[in-house]
Amino acid sequence: MALITITQNFGGEGMAIAGKVADELGIELFDDRKLQSLVKASGIPSAEVSRFDEKAPGFLDQFMGHRPQVFLDMLESVIYEVARKGEGVIIGHGSQMLLRNFDCAFHVRVFSSDQKRVENMAAQLGLSRDAALKLVRKRDQEQTGFFNFAFHLEMDDPSLYDLIIHTQKLDIDSASSLIVQAARSESIRTCSLKALEAMDQLALEKKVHAALLKIGVHMNSIVVEVPARGTVHVYGISAGNQETQDIEAAVRGVPGVSKVVSRLAVLSGV
């Protein structure tokens, strides 16, 4: 059992490495398409999901303009649900940050030189070298902006990773073999049930957050806790009895919720 996150810069060899690792270990690859399908299944409309691709042009501008916190909650929920399975290879999407305290995960950072990335994009997209360089620079800025906005962390912080690979020193086969070897070690394969249960509870908490945001609830006055599987506690202040009822109904409507404990106080004078 191995849960691996791989973080790369646009145009690098991280995706190719991730594919070989997943094939070698016989585990599922969670790339853009797979993660988007999982988010879509969680209730975000297809048209909105298609905008939230780390590699899409203007990614950050689009992200900021279309219910960013709702999408973040749903994305985090999906990452936690994948983590709950205890195995898989997750590409990007802040997975190394979301799972940085998850002792079952093995985090890998793949660096490719600017020269290599420009060559890759020029070949794949039929661009001139100058156009490919501008594209790489633009996507780097967008990716950095996304991580700063979403997680308030620097994606190149070495403390987020267990293994850092530079593809100028290691080719795709060598890099993937190194990750597979590490993933098969006993220290990586061992995962506690307590950690898996925590991911299950975090996933449900994020789903509830997203459900409340979608109905217009201001989360700065609401606290959501999931103390046990299927049980959700809601605390805080609502604007009135109708909002209290709406909140409770939204929480009950989230898949996986079996019990709701509501301790909402109505704002005096409303």
Name given to the CATH architecture of the largest domain: 3-Layer(aba) Sandwich
Structure summary, number of beta strands: 8
The order of strands across the largest sheet is 2-3-1-4-5
CATH-level-4 superfamily name of the largest domain: P-loop containing nucleotide triphosphate hydrolases
| Total number of helices | 12
- CATH topology of the largest domain: the name is Rossmann fold
Mean pLDDT: 81
Description of the molecule:
It is a single chain. The protein folds into two domains: 3-183, Rossmann fold (3-Layer(aba) Sandwich); 199-266, Histidine-containing Protein, Chain: A (2-Layer Sandwich), CATH 3.30.1340.30. It is α/β, with parallel strands linked by helices. Helix 7 (114-125) packs across helix 8 (129-151). The strands form two sheets. The protein has a five-stranded parallel β-sheet with strand order 2-3-1-4-5, with helices on both faces. The chain has a three-stranded mixed β-sheet with strand order 6-7-8, with helices on one face. It is globular. The protein contains twelve helices and eight strands. Helix 12 (241-252) links the parallel strand 7 (231-238) and strand 8. The relative contact order is 0.15.
Task: From the structure above, extract its key features.
alpha/beta, three-stranded mixed beta sheet, 52% helix, globular
